[in-house]
Amino acid sequence: MGNFANLVRKNKIKGPTQKDFNLQVWEAEKKTDNLDKKIYSAGIYFFNQLNKIRNDLDHISSHKVCLSRDNFLKAFISLSNLEFKKLHFLESTNISTSLIDVQTKKVTKNPFGADITLDELAHACVDSILLNCIHHFNDKKNEIDESISKHEIIDYISSEFKLSQLYDIYNYYWNGILFEQLDFFTKENNTFISENTELNIIYKCSHIRDLQINFNDSIHSYNEIEALINNKLFICYDLEKFSYKKFYDLPQRLKTSILTSYSSYFSLKNDFLEKKSTSLNFSFLDIFNVFIQLSSLSYYILEQIRYQNYFDFNKLCPEIDLFKLINQLDFINNTDFSSEIIKFISFNPKRKIKADLWRMPIIKLENGKIILCLASLLHPNYSRCLEGWIQEADEKLDEKGQKFEISFRNEIREILKENELLYNDYYVYEPISKYITFNEEKYEIDILFRIGNHIFIGEAKCLVSADSPVSNWNIYESLRKGSFQAIERKNFITKNIKNFSELLKYKGEISNLKIIPFIVNSNRIFTGLTINSIPVIDPIIFNQYFKNNNLTILAVNNIVLASLELYRNKAELINNFEKYIHYPPTIQTLKGRVKFLDPMLIPTPTSNYENYCYFIRLSFNPVNKVSDLSNISYKFSKKINTTYNTILNRSLLPFNLN
């Protein structure tokens, strides 16, 4: 990586998204490699586009439309809720929607009329209005000018919304290029932005696998959760008054949404799930209990939205009586602190953590009532929410690391014990102190175990969720740091191999010992990536190898359609593990199905929005028949069940992605 790119990333040279960007400084700094040159060219391009949008937003603001702060906020939340209604409708009318469909199916119902995927639409419903909400949150209490026509108001709001959304898009693209998740190039005088980078491909593969695992976990726990909450009360709402029903009386789609939320929340490996914060009067489980009730409330609001309600704020974004809502929440949850929780998850740009409508989906109006961002409540990311709530409560997330190491060591011990091929020829080291010391050198080794004549070193990383190119890069940098640490520890063991052979109860020839380092990541992002020759895995990848020598890669209704033979005996079990962690089969499946969608046309501000740049998105080919897997390189012997080489029902899960 060149020095110029590094200086921009560290904010020592201001980038094009910052108002104090200096073109002379940008041009004067030396560029030493291709990445530097790409960042330089992209920076000038994005500065010109973003600067034009900023000027146009200033021009719009100079033509003041005298709306109150509340009506501005209601307008943008209304646009979000209307867009989310379209997504809700598309999902409800397409029973075959799978996770692959969400990444590939395209719709044009969005403010720009561009071809975007269902996944992009879901995120756009929330992310596209964030800048508008931040901008108008502290507006003065202006009264509405009754002389302004509804058409003028709609034109003003729509213009600001589209420009802010376009600004957010270009800002995202710039960060993606700066942090190596997007490519930037010109061809035949056209500008292209592409997701075709190694880092982004692995991120997308690991991300969709993570979604699939969470989805599978949700399905498996439905019956158990349903039995626990079947008689629990949930809020109902008809836009005028509240009521409540027991879970078993709710509409089926709402029941499924609630079950998924419960499963998603309680499947998180986080010690704060039910813990009371030291700085709050309630626990994080109490926050979840309020969040799930607001989700139920949001469902009833969404059901009553119609497309013809365009800019009818009272129907798209009804004002909710906060006093009555708090009474309902306290009654249902048997608490007396719902008002404190509502305040805690209410949107405010000046909060400790980054302003985020996903974690803070409530906006309080000047009249004391509230409005809700429906997409945040009905399609939540509870991992992201919980981590944000923990940080807002001043709790420390970094304390999770040691507990993750202990948990993973216990998993290793149990899974190796259950594998009959090993005949107890393994040893998992349990630390008796923080450091291992030999010959006046000492190192902290997170995971250390031996199988046969192989010594395995695991560098454990317990990382927070990713929600942007910057946070993706921070995760990558933590993993890269872990790769250097793993190499250091490998060298330490090599220099003290006799001592480690004794430590790990090895009885064979020391010259036969082989050292295999790896990184294990708690949040499953970037699983399958290799950094400095060190593979990144997660506990599920590890466990799958030792559970069974045959790994299912495609199954429908318990019928195995395709599988891999990982090993046949003890020697292969030991020797093939290194190959397995460098090429995890579930990631290989997705990498083998990568495709690129037709470019999405993004208006270029410098052309007065008449011309376009082209955004090339990564996606995945769905598996429609068993033979779709035949050309994927798995590094292991593949078994295809040709008996069932027929078109699959698209409503079934696309892969076995554990």
Annotation keywords:
658 residues; alpha+beta; six-stranded mixed beta sheet; four-stranded mixed beta sheet
Q: What's the gyration radius in Å?
A: 27 Å
Please tell me the overall pLDDT. 88
Which segments are poorly predicted (pLDDT under 50) over 5 or more consecutive residues? 93-104, 649-658
Overall spatial form: globular
Described by strand count, sense and barrel closure, the largest sheet is: 6 strands, mixed
Number of strands: 23
Distance between the termini: 34 Å
Structural class: alpha+beta
| Residue share in β-strands | 15-25%
Task: Provide the helix percentage.
Answer: 40-55%
Fold and architecture overview:
- The protein has 3 domains: 197 residues, no CATH class; 197 residues, no CATH class; 150 residues, no CATH class.
- It is 47% helix and 15% strand.
- The chain has 22 helices and 23 strands.
- Strand 10 and strand 11 form a beta hairpin.
- The C terminus is likely disordered.
Please give the structural blueprint.
Blueprint: H1 3-9, H2 23-28, H3 34-62, H4 69-92, H5 99-104, E1 106-107, E2 116-117, H6 118-127, H7 130-136, H8 150-178, E3 183-187, E4 190-194, H9 198-229, E5 233-237, E6 242-246, H10 252-266, H11 284-303, H12 313-316, H13 322-333, H14 338-344, E7 362-364, E8 370-372, H15 374-378, H16 382-392, H17 400-418, E9 426-428, E10 436-438, E11 441-443, E12 447-451, E13 454-461, H18 469-495, H19 497-503, E14 514-521, E15 530-531, E16 534-537, H20 539-547, E17 550-556, E18 559-565, H21 570-582, H22 585-591, E19 594-596, E20 600-603, E21 612-616, E22 618-620, E23 637-640
Parallel strand pairs: 4-21, 13-14, 14-16
Antiparallel strand pairs: 1-2, 3-4, 5-6, 7-8, 9-12, 10-11, 12-13, 15-16, 17-18, 18-23, 19-22, 20-21
